[in-house]
Write a structure and sequence with these properties.
The strands form two sheets. The protein has a two-stranded antiparallel sheet with strand order 1-2. The protein has a two-stranded antiparallel ribbon with strand order 3-4. It has helices spanning 9-15, 23-40, 44-48, 55-74, 76-80, 111-118, and strands spanning 85-88, 91-94, 101-104, 107-110. The protein has 128 residues and is of the alpha+beta class. It contains six helices and four strands; from the N terminus they run αααααββββα.
Length: 128
């Protein structure tokens, strides 16, 4: 059985009304974002099955996958960079855990999006 994203390209385009990720890259971006959500939720979605989650959890996960796909597409160069910070002529940039970016298990995500994902109850290290 092959891995399937929690969001279809049709959902992204029609219901989420996304327009950041180009259609030809959308399936791949949604699958990658779904895998990152699995990492941050300790594979609890895979273990329980997406359809067995509460409707609220399913809707939040779909929204977070779309938001994460957008974030990863817009910031692909920074996310894949091996540098965590650099400075050129007095101008510096930093990527990693900061006030607005959350990083865990090699996944970078906007902090407010992680907070939304946490509302599902699937991100707690102690949960079963």
């Amino acid at each position: 059985m092959s891995y399937k994203s929690y969001v279809t390209p049709e959902y992204y385009l029609d219901q989420y009304e996304g327009d950041i990720v180009p259609e030809e890259e959308l399936a791949k971006a949604l699958k990658q974002a779904s895998r990152h959500i699995d990492s941050l939720t300790y594979n609890r979605i895979v273990g329980r099955g997406f359809s067995s989650l509460a409707e609220f959890q399913q809707e939040v996960i779909r929204e977070v996958v779309c938001m994460q796909a957008d974030f990863e597409y817009e910031n692909a160069d920074e996310i894949s960079s091996v540098l965590s910070s650099y400075s050129i002529n007095g101008v510096s940039a930093q990527f990693g855990s900061s006030w607005n970016v959350f990083t865990d298990k090699g996944v970078a995500m906007k902090r407010d999006v992680y907070t939304l994902l946490s509302q599902t109850g699937l991100c707690c290290r102690l949960a079963r």
